[in-house]
Write a structure and sequence with these properties.
Layout (H helix, E strand, L loop, with lengths): L2 H14 L16 E6 L4 H8 L7 E6 L10 H11 L5 E7 L9 H10 L4 H9 L4 H4 L6 H13 L10 E6 L6 E5 L3 H6 L1
Parallel strand pairs: 1-2, 1-3, 3-4
Antiparallel strand pairs: 4-5
Length: about 190
């Protein structure tokens, strides 16, 4: 049986036994947080537990490396929706040690495209259209650099209210220990 069929079989039992009731909440984040983090499998359960977050407490936006590659991409759009439509009042960018985006080898990935049957002409066509693989597949030198890059883009975004703090953190993917890189209570500090 395939992984998908195993999951569908489990899901049927999950619904029939009403196991979902333990997770009931609504779409508005209870703790008014939007969290941009990495898609790393080690963080799926560890990160919410390490932050003392339950289902429904925060909006999680995940991608490779918690990186905003452009200010008007899907991750930034998700942050704006969390703020304007769902009531988030703080943004956390959380990277992690041992991230696969650290020193990502763009040319190595392009080589893997060919190994998996992607016609090199497709990459060449994209490059001619202005999509440079070295930029599209760019990682970072350290997770701290990646987090701070995303924090800067979010903070300076023309559509994000200045009153929304944007914090940067790094999590250890084994222990869950958090390291605060930047705390951003700008408005609160300015009024005191």
């Amino acid at each position: 049986m395939s992984t998908l069929h195993d999951m569908l079989s489990f899901n049927k039992q999950f619904v029939e036994e009403k196991q979902y009731e333990a997770y009931l909440t609504d779409k508005f984040p209870e703790k008014k947080l939007a969290i941009l983090t990495c898609m790393d499998t080690r963080l799926v359960e560890l990160l919410p537990k390490a932050l003392n977050l339950r289902n429904g407490d925060a909006k999680f936006i995940k991608n490779a490396g918690a990186i905003l590659t452009q200010p008007f991409g899907s991750a930034m759009r998700s942050i704006l929706v969390a703020v304007y439509e769902l009531g988030a009042r703080e943004v956390l960018v959380i990277g992690h040690h041992g991230c696969g985006m650290t020193n990502l080898d763009a040319s190595g990935m392009v080589a893997k495209f060919s190994e998996h049957g992607i016609d090199p002409l497709a990459v060449e066509t994209l490059e001619k259209a202005g999509i440079r693989m070295d930029k599209f597949l760019k990682g970072f030198n350290s997770p701290e650099e990646g987090v701070m890059h995303s924090v800067r883009i979010i903070r300076s975004h023309p559509l994000l209210p200045k009153s929304i703090p944007v914090h940067g953190l790094i999590i250890h993917p084994t222990t869950g220990e958090l390291e605060l890189l930047v705390e951003d209570y700008r408005e609160e500090a300015e009024t005191n």
